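Troubleshooting: if your tokenizer reports a length mismatch, compare your output against this known-good record of 308 residues.
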Amino acid sequence: MSGISLSRRSFLFNATCLAALGAQARIVQAELRLGPSARITTVSDGHLLLPPDVVFGAMPKEEVEQILTRTQADATKYEPECNVTLYRDDENTVLFDAGAGPDFMPTSGKLMETFEAIGLSPESVTHVVFTHAHPDHIWGVLDDFDDLLFPNATHLIGRKEWDYWWNPSTVDTIGEDRTAFAAGAKRRLEAIEDQVAFFEDGQEILPGIAARASFGHTPGHMAFELRNGNESVMVVGDALGNPHVAFEHPDWHSGTDQDPQVAAAARYSLLDQVSEEKKRIIGFHLPNGGIGRVEKTGSAYRFIGEAS
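Known-good structure output:
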């Protein structure tokens, strides 16, 4: 990067940090240790503000309302957290997803405030690993000046996901309500092209971090198993997108999934695995930092949060 780019980034980072001093939002959401040397922190990129029908519109209305009432969720609005997972060990500082950046929603794109709160600079990030390329997960790779926010990081993305968003026909086939998603993803992929590495399902992408296919929310959506000895955690991205309906009725089709049928199968597969193995999960849009466990109850599942 040029000297002017670094100067602009520093200016933006410092200005954002000053704004963060007066912020009241939760910055550091939850934290856990993995083995003797690895630390996982979920940090806030803010939250989304969506009409509930975007998620629940295709589901049985009365049953959805009953579940939301029972779980004390507000059926009149949908404001899911955006939890970016930060993994640090003796060698690497890894972000799972990059947040929304400045161009998506005014309630999101708060990651630099979080970085200031925990004393972390964007230049110290060694790897950015993407679950998928929806706006709230990848648009944050660029700052206000369209420079790479993480200039020293290798950006890792599944080959299937990259190929889908890189394809010039995607913007014409994704549907009118998502054309901005496609155009925005392509622009970010072009920006990281010189610093990108690809991986496939099942591949160990970094020591102790393996990719796990969870297609459907997007064509190449990935989860990631983080393992240290006998301990492991599954970063599930948007494969499990809310703490109630997605667990009680994994078969119900969510409006946020690009292929709802494939996404439902991925939910069942993930839920079976993590409940049987008693593995913690981290969800990008799950509450109170997104860390918890999954319990199977009959034919359904239950999310048990472990907020710190």
